[in-house]
Amino acid sequence: DARVTQTPRHKVTEMGQEVTMRCQPILGHNTVFWYRQTMMQGLELLAYFRNRAPLDDSGMPKDRFSAEMPDATLATLKIQPSEPRDSAVYFCASRISGANVLTFGAGSRLTVL
Amino acid sequence: DAKTTQPNSMESNEEEPVHLPCNHSTISGTDYIHWYRQLPSQGPEYVIHGLTSNVNNRMASLAIAEDRKSSTLILHRATLRDAAVYYCILSYSGAGSYQLTFGKGTKLSVIP
After folding, report:
1. Which residues contact B3 (CB under 8 A, 6 or more apart)?
2. Which of A10, A102, A103, A108 to probe the B interface (max B CBs under 10 A)?
3. pLDDT tens across B33-88, in order?
4. Do A102 and B42 touch (CB under 8 A)?
5. For A102, which of B97, B100, B105 is closest by C-beta distance?
């Protein structure tokens, strides 16, 4: 089965450090989403891209978060500087534009001490 | 965004059918009804989606009310592996926009 691959699966870091999470969407999928999941807020949409262009990043704290797609096979989510409240599981998902199925990765669990 | 309402939790016996309800009284004509599920420690997984007609696939069936203000996800024979949080989501797909906004979902427990 085709998969969305996320790295790292787990990351523990100290407050103030830069964190970069990576996502490899399914080959041929041109729309990529970043979600964050916490116990309190559930699953929140942070940003999404189509054909590598950002379409909506209104869910993302702009002062410390940034999302990019350097190429069609890689999406990145960067937090700088990280804070304890950023501790969460971050999911990447992808789809083909026009399709109604989103495929999620296994997530990156971030702990900021 | 149109909202959905689901029970917080449900229980089912193994090998019994499960009916998971979802209310979406403010649904618009272009909103699709999607169901995803999230098993423990995994990412959400697509289950099924529909617009107006009932839908069946290898995982489940989706029954949509005639007025589209509610729908029911049917698992025909629950297994222990079906224990998960099930999300009912409406999506708008138009004007170049496509988003899925997840609510709290229904936590399904399957009793052996």
Report:
1. B24, B26, B90, B103
2. A102
3. 999 999 999 999 999 999 999 999 999 999 999 999 999 999 999 999 999 999 99
4. no
5. B100
